[in-house]
Amino acid sequence: MKRRIWLYFFSLIPAIGSLTVINKIEPYVLGLPFVLFWLLLWVILTSFFLYIVNILDPANHEGEEDI
Amino acid sequence: MNISLFITFAILIFACYLGVSARKGKEMNMEQWAVGGRSFGSLTIFFILAGEMFTTFTFLGASGMAYGVGMPAVYAFNCFYFIVAYWMLPPIWKYAKKHNVMSQADFYEKKYKSVGLGVVVAIIGVIASVSYLVMQFVGLGIIVSASSYGSISSGLAVVLSGLLVTVYVTISGMHGSAWTAIFKDILILGVIIFMGVYFPFHYYGGFKPMFQAIESAHPEMLLFPAEGLSITWFVTTSIMIALAFYLFPHMQTGVFSSKSAKALRWNAASMPIYQLIIVFSVFIGFAAVLQVPGLNDADMSIFKLAQGAFPPWFVGLVGGAGALAALVPSSIVLLSSATLLSKNIFKVWRPKTTDQQLGRLSRLLVPILVVIAIFFALNESKLIGLIYIMVYSIIVQLFPALFFSLLKKNPITKIGAFAGMIVGVILVIYSTVTDTTLATLYPNLPSMIKDFDTGLLIMMINFVVTYVVGVNTEKNFNKVTDGSLEKYQQVKG
């Protein structure tokens, strides 16, 4: 159970990241204005973070989970 | 009939064929029809819930907003959704499975042991669903009419599409939605990614040249403005929408039809990557800024570009993809609101209705709901615009009661849940009708506070009301009414 609390806070990192807007056009990254690149980056990182959480989540390893 | 319209309709009819053939070999009882017999594995549930990401909003709205105001359109993708989904959906699913919950209102009714609360939730859900449906139909009208190059009026297009949705929802239920959702997503992804890459390169020679061209012509479009659609607006609206997104009755239905909680977690983790595709729709909108300037209707930008650059058959394909983007969510919304009306409102009124009768009633309600939605879609007035703004703000008012009910020990009573919802919904209606926001109440506040999302603010008030009332009304009130509930449930079976 304790592990789930840590995982919960871990999963909030991308939320904080994606809601932190860096409102700048320069520098362009991959041809995109920086603000757009930054927000897209966090979309990708959200998946990354949640996959890790999903793998470590004890709830996925409990027998009675999937009835 | 021109070739593009022909292709659009061929795609729609193929989707219906998929939906209707999906019912084969399944006895269509209420559980099969409403939640697909709770049999959908990771992949299917992925397409059902992900399918909700790609509605007419993605198609017309995201590109239209990028075309109209620029960067704030990125609120269309927001990874906060999935963190909410990861932690909130599995416990909902588990409870639903254990207690045989088939609709969102069932969930609240059983959690709070209150039939009345179930009815209130059902009413809020149906109001939100019908408004949602109206907007999808309006979008559908624009799409079909555009792909016919104007030879079909958008009114006629709305009526025709309403007919198609009715047929396939009535016959196939949730199973139909699953198959069509997969077909729809493949088509939409193909069309949007292709156009989102093609236009910037074709017209500007790449992404960077495109954004630089926009920067020199309209530099303000590439940033969040200091006021109005500011960063505060972005953050608070993103949070509000992420919380509201999974609270729509049809999303809850999608959750219930999952086979396992694992499928839902996997789904939450994979969705952000999938949602990334919406950015291509934003690219299309940006590409249109300098290519087809001065459109009255920003939502038409995607079609104006396509008609200028591609042969009619391709425009037909775009039209087909767009039409499916409206059709699939509409069918799921119809299913869930028909279930709410029959199971959580009609049955409370007439407790002796058998399940078989309920099933028949739900199916009968589908065409009625379609007619109502078509009526509003054809008479699209300012009122509908107001309702649409209200939809997300209203539905998010269901959050506090849900949140407390998911805690190990629910600290609040049903009176609290009830009070919070009512206060929340009334405040939303009041603020929308009178156009009251923090900005109009306190125009001198800094924009950092002023642009706070009204729906989210009201939800926070609702949260406090729910808690304060919920903790202070004693459980003995529950005792008084518990007896009547048991009696009711005995009759209900």
From TrEMBL, chain A:
The chain crosses the membrane at residues 5-22, 28-53. The keyword Transmembrane helix applies. The keyword Transmembrane helix applies. InterPro entries: DUF3311. It comes from the Bacteria. Keywords: Membrane, Transmembrane, Transmembrane helix. This is DUF3311 domain-containing protein. It comes from Lysinibacillus agricola.
Automatic annotation (TrEMBL), chain B:
The keyword Transmembrane helix applies. It is a multi-pass membrane protein. Keywords: Membrane, Transmembrane, Transmembrane helix, Transport. The keyword DNA repair does not apply. InterPro entries: Na/Glc_symporter_sf (IPR038377), Na/solute_symporter (IPR001734), Sodium:Solute_Symporter (IPR050277). Pfam families: SSF. It is found in: Membrane. Its main location: membrane. The chain crosses the membrane at residues 6-22, 43-67, 73-93, 114-143, 149-169, 181-201, 231-248, 269-293, 313-341, 361-378, 384-403, 415-434, 454-471. It comes from the Bacteria. Belongs to the sodium:solute symporter (SSF) (TC 2.A.21) family. This is Sodium:solute symporter family protein. It comes from Lysinibacillus agricola.
